[in-house]
Amino acid sequence: MRGVAHREAAQPKKAVEAFRRALKMNDKDADAYYQLALASASAGDLAAERTALEDAVGADANHADAWTNLGSVRGEAGDFSGEKAAYETALEAKPDHEAARDNLRGISLIAARDKARAGDYAGAGAVLTDALGRLGGEEGAGNAQLVAASAQIEALQDPEKARAMQEAAEEARRATVEEIEEF
């Protein structure tokens, strides 16, 4: 496709034009819509990027790359439930899609943190449990952060465990400071 060549040559406006011409010939081409979205983003037209991504997933509901990028666009616009839904849809289409997995993991950690900061430890735990379920459980690749956060949330629900965690963290900080001073 000429559009790809223009995009790779850092000519996003020419790429946008080429993809629009291609889509006039075949308005069902999900990959052309996806490439149009990438070119539109490079040209700084974020509204056109979002529209092209929506058209791409409309043309092919299993286009995991388009769903993943649409999730990011939705998140940037403040639509966090739409962002999560897009990543989940990408993973339904392609369960091993790394970017969708990483993004879903990241927004789950943020959502759990926000709930915990608000004192909703049960809600935070539920967010993490849901994410672990969608991402392959405790043994899932890259899920160590989710597992650790889940353990921390569980401990925060028990004042004795929370105090012990705080003491252990303080001891670790002291040990690190001593090591630095000795160095």
Can you tag this structure with a few keywords?
183 residues, mainly alpha, Serine Threonine Protein Phosphatase 5, Tetratricopeptide repeat, 10 helices, 80% helix, elongated
Can you describe this structure in just a few lines?
The chain is mainly alpha-helical and 183 residues long. The chain has helices spanning 2-8, 12-25, 30-42, 46-59, 64-76, 80-93, 98-117, 121-134, 144-156, 159-182.
What does this structure look like?
- By secondary structure, the protein is mainly α.
- Helices cover 80% and strands 0% of the residues.
- The chain has 10 helices and no strands.
- The chain has helices spanning 2-8, 12-25, 30-42, 46-59, 64-76, 80-93, 98-117, 121-134, 144-156, 159-182.
- Helix 5 (64-76) runs antiparallel to helix 6.
- The model has no long low-confidence stretch (mean pLDDT 88).
